[in-house]
Amino acid sequence: MRRGMILAFIGLGIIVVVLAIALASVGTELDQARMRREDLQLEVDDLQDELTGLSSERQQLQRQAEDHLKQINQLTTELERLRSEAQRQEQPSAAGAATPPPTTTTPSRP
Question: Distance (Å, rounded) from C-alpha 84 to C-alpha 94?
Answer without folding.
Answer: 15
